[in-house]
Amino acid sequence: RRVPPQAPPVTLQLLFLDGEEAFGDWSDTDSLYGARHLAARMAARGHPAGSELSAMVSRCRD
């Protein structure tokens, strides 16, 4: 009996940030320090062959 090949396991990571990291006034240059640091670390980390890395960024303001 042959067992059909199975797809490799999939890992999904979701990260929700509150976006309240500005030291002064909220601006493009004074915000998201931790989020930017984490994104840089995740992008620099090696990913196994065949992996897909994608990101969707959405800015929502009240």
TrEMBL record:
It catalyses: N-terminal L-glutaminyl-[peptide] = N-terminal 5-oxo-L-prolyl-[peptide] + NH4(+). InterPro entries: QC/QCL. The keyword Transferase applies. GO terms for molecular function: glutaminyl-peptide cyclotransferase activity; zinc ion binding. Its EC number is 2.3.2.5. The keyword Isomerase does not apply. Keywords: Acyltransferase, Transferase. Belongs to the glutaminyl-peptide cyclotransferase family. This is glutaminyl-peptide cyclotransferase. It comes from Notiomystis cincta. The gene is Qpct_1.
